[in-house]
Structure formats: C-alpha cells, structure tokens
Write a structure and sequence with these properties.
Blueprint lengths: L3 H14 L8 H21 L5 H6 L8 E4 L5 E3 L4 E10 L4 E3 L1 E2 L2 H9 L11 E4 L3 E5 L5 E8 L8 E4 L2 E4 L11 H14 L9 H11 L2
Helix pairs in contact: 1-5, 2-5, 5-6
Length: 213
C-alpha cells in the first residue's frame, strides 16, 4: 500500500507528464489531494450498498467485528467515526442472530406488536445521532461492524535548509488500496485543468461508472 510520500511523488510525476509545468508544493498537495480523496470517497459511498466494487474499494475504511457492551437501558454510544453501520449481531461466535434495524417511526409498531415484539432471538435496534438503541434493553452485548468516516491524508514535513523534508511520524497515511490512488490523482488533474484521459483512460472510465450508480 502506498504511503503518503509515495502518493505525493506519483502525483507530481503524473501531473508533470500531463503537462503541468508548475511546482506542486507540499501545502498545495495537502489541499488538493484531500479534496480529491473526499470527492472519491463520496462517489464510492453513494453506491456502497449496490455495488461490490465500491464496497471493495472502501474495505480499508471498514472495521473488524467489534464486541460492544450495551448498557442497562439498551443504549450504546456510537464511536465518533461511524459513517454507516454495516451489521449488528448478537450471540456467541458459534451461534449468532442478526439484529434488525427498525426506523424510529416504525419502532412503536414493533414494540407493541403481538408477533414482532423483539426478544433475544429476534432483537432490533434504532439508530440516533449519538447512540444506538437496542431492544430488548437487556441485550447486554452485540457485535458491530461499521464503515468509518473519511479521514484526509496529510504529507507532513520539516524544513531542512529551507527545503521541505518528508516527516513520516506526523503524516497521515492514506487508507486507499493502490488501485484507487491513480483515480484520485486523476481528480487532482481535473482540479488543475489538465487532460489526463490518454494516460489514465481506464481510471476515467472507472470513475464515471461509479458516479452513475
């Protein structure tokens, strides 16, 4: 997987080959690359549920299964970086049942239903801005998998004799798979008004396919 220094060097090379004859300073890069990352992330997330390729591209932003503790009121405070809950399950490793998501406006129907009232074999949850509400409230624990929100990359540096030198310790590394980096660099080229279609035709077509989902 590329580190942010690899990406910076590759971006300068790609843009130079496409005809950009100016200097891309670290500060310029730290503006345009996160902007392109964010746009690309939004494109992928738009088709996340419907497209396997988009799910694969966002896999580095997805958590491993996390066992969470539900409090006595059936609540669990969401981590700050939750963007999308992929799944919630209850039970042991060998025997798990899915926890069904119920919209808030339908919650009363389930809770008051003679047939659909939640229990440990058929638990449900409702999601709010800061927490998840589980039923039955005695559920005690669950297994959570979620998609993390976008975090921009950063090429940090120190000045040595007036020149920027890469600082790996304070840099924020990209989470993207190598196959997605070229597509993000193409988006940088668009910001600079460059035509990179001939060099990166496959990436252009891939982005367009993701955008039309």
């Amino acid at each position: 997987m590329y580190n942010i220094d690899d990406v910076y060097k590759l971006a300068k090379y790609r843009l130079s080959k496409a005809g950009f004859d100016g200097n891309i300073s670290p500060n310029d890069f730290n503006v345009v690359f996160p902007r392109a990352e964010k746009r690309y992330f939004k494109i992928l997330y738009k088709g996340y549920l419907a497209n396997q390729a988009n799910q694969d591209a966002l896999m580095p932003f997805k958590t491993d299964p996390i066992t969470i503790t539900v409090d006595g009121q059936g609540k669990y405070t969401k981590p700050a970086d939750v963007l999308h809950i992929d799944s919630l399950r209850h039970g042991s490793v060998s025997s798990q049942v899915p926890i069904k998501r119920v919209p808030d406006d339908r919650l009363a129907n389930n809770l008051n239903s003679e047939y659909d009232a939640p229990n440990v074999e058929f638990p449900i949850y409702t999601e709010y801005a800061s927490y998840i509400q589980f039923y039955p409230i005695t559920l005690a624990n669950a297994i959570l998998v979620y998609l993390k929100d976008f975090t921009p990359s950063l090429w940090a540096y120190t000045l040595v004799s007036g020149r920027p030198v890469y600082d790996s310790v304070n840099s924020v590394q990209p989470k993207w798979l190598d196959s997605d980096i070229d597509e993000i660099i193409y988006m940088i080229g668009v910001d600079f008004g460059l035509n990179m279609r001939d060099q990166m035709g496959i990436q252009v077509n891939d982005i367009k396919a993701k955008e039309t989902i």
